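Predict the 3D structure for this chain.
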Amino acid sequence: MLGWKLFLRALNLILDNLPAALRISAVPYGLVAAISIWIALEWPDVVGVGLQLDPNNPLAADLAGAFVLSALATIAASIWIAVGWHRYVLLAEGGDRWVAPFKGDLILGYLGRSLLVGLAVGVLVLAAATIASILLLPLFGTAANPLIQALSLFVAMVLFYRLGIVLPAGAVGRSMTFGEAMRLTEGHSGTAAILALVTVAFSFLLQAPTWLDGPAGAITVVYEIVVGWIGLMLGVGTLTALYGVVVEGRPVE
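Done. Predicted structure below.
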């Protein structure tokens, strides 16, 4: 199965190039980790719980501000790392420095394309869910809701990977439209679905220990930081591997 092979390819790229992966991500992800540790020290009650929105018990302004800062830092760091890893794997660039090259134009372009991919996926998934609801709800009633949700998730994952190759394309300086991305990934819907399912399952497996009841503390914070890094690198790596195979014709093995 190509989807499984692409996942293994992404994982092996990280393991085989671990020093470069750490160098590319050290500074931006280190900033995110520092903010996470600061929040955990200032507000230990949120460790292992995260942001909880309750209209009857609004967050304190300083805690809300800390979460906003963390979210913005995570987005910025993730894009910085993504661009760096795409360029390292596809162009053999930047793996010898302790600070990933900061290419502002590419990073801003990556952010813009990410928003467009998210918007396109959202619109198409909403359309698919609406059609499924019209067809299934009159026949099965509310019992059809789990099937509709599963179908929507499946469509979202397939579309993300098929459209998502515009992200590594932009990172290496290649202009690619959504139409071109769909054409290049034609016939790879199954591959995209398997790749997404395996990635999500692996992420859930890594997160499972944090769901166990028990005292939250420094170990939880450190574990979440490590798992977050693995999830980020795998997500970026799977897109990189998919782009390399379907666009550049690279071997998957």
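The longest helix spans residues 104-140.
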